[in-house]
Amino acid sequence: MGKIIGIDLGTTNSAFAFVQAGKPEVITNKEGNRTTPSVVAIDVDSKSEIAGITAKNQMVTNPEQTFYSVKRFIGLKYDDSSVKKDLELVPFKTRKSSKGGIEIQFGDKWVTPEEVSAKVLAKIKADAEAFLGESVDGAVITVPAYFDDSQRQATKNAGKIAGLDVKRIINEPTAAAIAYGLEKSGDQTIAVYDLGGGTFDVSILEIGDGIYEVKSTSGDTHLGGDDFDQRLIDHFVDEFKKEQGIDLKEDPAALQRLKEAAEKAKIALSSSEQTEVNLPYITADAKGPKHFRMTLKKSDMEKIVSDLVDKTFDSVRQALKDAGVEKSEINEVVMVGGMTRMPMVKNKVKEFFGKEPNISVNPDEVVAVGAALQGAVLAGDKEVDDITLLDVTPLSLGLEVNAGQMHVLIPRNTTIPTEKSEDRFTTGVDNQPAIDVKVLQGERPLAKDNKVLGTFRLDGIAPAARGVPQFEVTFKIDANGILNVKAKDKGTGKEQDITITASTQLEQEEIDKLVKEAEENASKDKEEMEKLKVKNDADSYVFQSEKLLKDHADKISEDQKTTLEDKNKEIKDELAKGDDADIEKLKTLSNELMEKMQEVGAKVYEDAGGATTDSDSESGDKPNAEEGEVVE
Ligand code: AMP
Which end of the chain is more exposed for a tag (fewer CB within 10 A), N or C? Predict the structure, then answer.
């Protein structure tokens, strides 16, 4: 069997590692670097595919055929609001696929984001094989903790396309914690602060007995090193304009040089107090060539970018709140991502938590190292201590029932893998031939306010009265976070299922927003839920009253029949008004109908000599509006 490697497939850069004699080691790529830009391109001259630093280096001259930040699109839908903005920002061409996904124009072909990511992974595989001198066929790949099922599935597919057997998809913060071997020092709560090239994530984890549990995650999918670079570029452009009166923003080639210089200056200022930026022949005017030269002090840069660092703490506060943890309860702060090398970032993190952050493992490599250690455990490497992973679902999962309610099967923050079955689902009308299972994700009680992850139909239901068929619905999430939903007709044994591979997407921002919205709307939602319940109950009483009339036609007097029928009609007419239905009126009508039904029911059984008969209504019992959860 070939080697298993651990891969940190990043938005801007990737890193990969393996384990030898129980020790993790980062793999150097063919260019001799320990990180590899997650960039793919089609070379203008040779028309061949290139990946990594060579692709990144020709980005300006070949923008339409240089593919970067593809991780922002993996497993997502074209029409997703958070994707739209990103699609506008990238220079390569994209379009909506026939299934609503994203396609990228790659040469003369249209490919999916996972196919592009696969090309980065293929370079990683090839470079690792060259480094190790043996074949690599297995991998553990990391993803952000907030990635949803479809993003995880798409990442797994990317690995498969690249010829890798993806043994496990694990969360980036979990991998970072594994790299630190934090499980060895007893139970503790840790914060993983990850500031990379394009994104910021923070996670709160609980660790103990070799178990890692992600308690909460938060972050900003559009905050990273690139924003710091952009601030410096803007500063350079302003300075040049002041001095020379020329706006470099109009000149793409000059801008690319400024971008490279900005990143270089930012990195240099992590280890020195000032740096020289020197860009000869940056542009020219009628008087001749112009050069850009300036001295940038660390203190000046810090003023320019300080608010960007401060912004990360909004997410940190949110993550602490979601995990129900005070910052003083955090035992370790683990730093991940190249940007955490910036002294100001380290200092502000230290100030916030009141303790020295842990930076002993290289922040660019820590995630890959953790993934490699997990890979070694999965391969049965006896020299690596056993590690168990416990990740959690970021949002609740359930299905739509009772004309618009969210019925949760797996609550938010449930540890995965997990499986949950319920068999209290039934039909809403007589002879209903099929049920449509609408799989939902979110925290709101009304289905319409949550995300639809997918819908499937279970048909072939044998003709039966409403409420009689019984369905079992099972939600199963595997260790990679991939969701499978199955519905089974308990009468016929017929089954139908769906694996959520094209789910609606949820960026971390969106998760936070949804949770917040659920809190804010709690009282409004409660009111709406009550309205819905009044309507469902009214509908159910009409059903029971009609059943009573049918089942006991011979025992019910004409007068009683007319009274019940009139009430039924009044309720039906009111329900037919939909959203305009008068809820108070429905409540009154339902109560009146219920009383009448009790009267009629009592009379029927009295006449029958007090014996309990066949059907599901018992003598003198109050009619019951609870019939199980109706799936339409
Ligand atoms: P990552 O996505 O984790 O690879 O982080 C990449 C980001 O870290 C880029 O914006 C880099 O410019 C930045 N970076 C890398 N090294 C340093 C450093 N020594 N000081 C400041 N920023 C750095």
Answer: N
